[in-house]
Write a structure and sequence with these properties.
The protein has 2 domains: about 160 residues, Vaccinia Virus protein VP39 (Rossmann fold, 3-Layer(aba) Sandwich), CATH 3.40.50.150; about 80 residues, Adenine-specific Methyltransferase, Domain 2 (Adenine-specific Methyltransferase, domain 2). About 35% of the residues lie in helices and about 15% in strands. Helix 9 links the parallel strand 4 and strand 5. Strands 3-2-1-4-5-7-6 form a 7-stranded mixed beta sheet, sandwiched between helices. It has about 290 residues and is an alpha/beta fold.
C-alpha cells in the first residue's frame, strides 16, 4: 500500500516510522476511517480514505486542521514571514502570555502553531499549568516552515465531501463508528512501572486508559475493525490480554544527538474482526 499524502505536522510520537507496519494491518475494505486521537494523523494522510472522521481534544491542533482546509492561501502567506531564529521563536511562542493572543485570527493562531511545531524541539506539543506553550527552541539548521506543496495537497484532500474534523474527547469521536468502520487509536502512551499507570500528558489519567479499553471492547462488539497503538508494558498487555497483540520496535527521533536515539518497544493491538481477516489473508497467501 503506497503512501498517498504526507502529514503537514511534525509530531512527537507520530506514526510516520510505523507506516510500513501499520499499512498491512489496514482492512482490505472498510466503510469509513475514524481516528479519535489525530495528532499529526500520519496514517490518515498516507491512506487518504474517501470517508473519514478525524478528532482530537487539542483545540489549537483542530483549529489548524480547519484553517489548512478552509483558508490555505492566507495560511501560506502568514507562514512565509516566520524566521527560524531563536529570539524570534521565543517571541512568537510567548504570545499566549499576552492579551493579544485572544484577539489573533484563526489563521494567525494556525500559522503560529505550525511554526512552533516545525521549529520547536522535537515536534513536541507541551503546555504548562496555565495552558501556555513551553517547548524550547529546536535549533535546527534547515526547516521547511511553509511546506507549501504538502499543505496545498492536505487542504485539497480535507475539502473532500466526506471528511469530517472534530474537536472532541476520544469517546465522542469514537461514538461515530459503526459496523464496518476502521478505527485507529493512538492515545497518549502509558509509561512507568508495570504496576502503575503514568500519564503521557497530565490530562490522560488511569481513568482515561480504562475508558479507552472499555471503548475498544465496545467497538469490537459493534463490528468495527480496530487497531490501537501503545507502549509495550506489562500493564497494557494485561489490559488488552483478550485481544491480539503484536510487539514492534521503533526508534524515536526526539534526541538531537542521533547516537543517543534508542529503540522503544511498542504494541499494536488488533480486535477480533480485524485479526480474523488478517489470518484469512495469510492463509490465502500461504496457499
Amino acid at each position: 500500500m503506497e503512501k498517498k499524502l504526507r502529514t503537514p505536522f511534525k509530531w512527537t510520537g507520530g506514526k510516520r516510522q510505523l507506516l510500513p507496519i501499520l499499512h498491512p494491518l489496514v482492512p482490505m475494505s472498510y466503510r469509513r476511517y475514524i481516528e479519535p486521537f489525530a495528532g499529526g494523523a500520519a496514517l490518515f494522510f498516507s491512506l487518504a480514505p474517501e470517508k473519514a472522521v478525524i478528532g482530537d481534544i487539542n483545540e489549537t491542533l483542530m483549529l489548524t486542521y480547519k484553517v489548512i482546509r478552509d483558508e490555505c492561501e492566507d495560511l501560506l502567506q502568514h507562514l512565509s514571514v516566520h524566521q527560524n531564529q531563536e529570539a524570534y521563536y521565543y517571541a512568537v511562542r510567548d504570545l499566549d502570555r499576552l492579551p493579544l493572543y485572544d484577539r489573533m485570527s484563526n489563521v494567525e493562531k494556525a500559522s503560529r502553531f505550525l511554526f512552533l511545531n516545525k521549529t520547536g524541539y522535537g515536534g513536541l506539543y507541551r503546555i504548562n499549568k496555565k495552558g501556555q506553550v513551553n517547548v524550547p527552541f529546536g535549533r535546527y539548521k534547515k526547516v521547511n516552515i511553509v511546506n507549501e506543496k504538502v499543505i496545498r495537497k492536505a487542504s485539497e484532500y480535507l475539502n473532500g465531501e466526506h471528511i469530517s474534523l472534530m474537536k472532541a474527547d476520544f469517546l465522542t469521536t469514537a461514538e461515530q463508528a459503526k459496523e464496518g468502520d476502521f478505527v485507529y487509536l493512538d492515545p497518549p502512551y502509558y509509561f512507568g512501572s508495570d504496576r502503575n499507570f503514568a500519564a503521557y500528558a497530565p490530562r490522560f489519567t488511569l481513568y482515561d486508559h480504562i475508558r479507552l479499553k472499555r471503548m475498544f471492547s465496545q467497538l469490537n462488539d459493534r463490528g468495527c475493525y480496530v487497531v490501537l497503538s501503545n507502549s509495550d508494558t506489562q500493564a497494557i498487555r494485561e489490559l488488552y490480554n483478550e485481544f491480539h497483540i503484536q510487539p514492534v520496535e521503533v526508534t524515536r527521533l526526539v534526541n538531537r544527538d542521533t547516537n543517543k536515539r534508542k529503540g522503544s518497544g511498542e504494541l499494536l493491538i488488533m480486535n477480533d474482526r480485524l485479526w480474523r481477516e488478517k489470518q484469512t489473508e495469510s492463509s490465502c497467501v500461504d496457499e
